[in-house]
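dumping this here before i forget
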Amino acid sequence: MIIVVSGLPRSGTSMMMKMLEAANIPVLIDEIREADEDNLEGYYEDERTKSLHKNNSWIREAEDKAVKIISYQLTHLPKKYNYRIIFMERRIDEILASQNKMIQRRGESADNIPDTIMARLFKKHLKEINLWLLEQPNIDTLYINYNETLDNPESSAEKITKFLQKDLDIEKMMQVVDPNLYRQRK
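structure:
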């Protein structure tokens, strides 16, 4: 089994990876992308996930581990493995605000796509990927709300423990949830 943490960018996937790591679940990360002002606790990524559509043979390294894979790449997971996906949900307006702030901080030029159009595209993608997930016999999915996790980390940790069918340290998982990192509130 491979544990996948997924969702839209800026939806709380790094926080979830940190929760799993705190519960002694090995995480597949490469530490290339270092912590910065936008993710003070680190990104918990493996760069190979960004090109999963070109090469997914390395995914075998994630067996019995957790790996973060953005929702746009999920359809490229090899069918020969079983996956438990923890799919992070967050309000679209907060995701957009967080992305915009990150782009601004990095001095990158914005793509000039209005937030209303981006929100519509994100919602369309989420609808499509959720339908796709339902159709996959080798994938079980648990949806975890970022905002609710900040308000009640114990409840989310308990849901994850039950979903993964593992005896996880709920206290340690709760300790890594830091509401002070919730900066783009809507």
